[in-house]
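Chapter summary example.
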Amino acid sequence: MSRIRVQKVAEQMKKEIADILRTSLKDPRVGFATVTHVEVSGDLQHAKVFVSILGSGEEKEASLAALTKASGFIRGEVARRLHMRVAPELLFRLDDSGDYSARIEDVLRTIRTENAPSDEA
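The structure predicted for these 121 residues follows.
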C-alpha cells in the first residue's frame, strides 16, 4: 500500500481515537489521555497508538491498562467510523516525550541560572 495512504489512515485514526476517548469511552480508570501519534503498518493490520497521560506513574499504568482492555471496543468504533472492512489491531503505548521535554527545559533553566553573570561586581 502506498506510504501516503498509510499516513492518511494513521492521521484519521488519530482523530477518531481521540474522539472516541473523549466521548464514547466511559471507563473511569482512563484519566486525562491525549493521543499524540499513531503508527500504522504498511498492510494496515497493526497500529501503535501513542498516548500522553497526566498523573502519577501508577495512574498512567492504570490508564494504559484500561485502554488496552478497551482496545477491542475502540477498534470496532474506528472500523465503523472509517468504513474499514478490517480495522488494525491497536497497541497502546505511553508517550513520555512531554515529560522528557519538561526535564530538558529544567536542565537548561538550571544551566542558565548558574551561568548568569552576578551583580556583585
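To summarize the output: The chain is about 55% helix and 20% strand.
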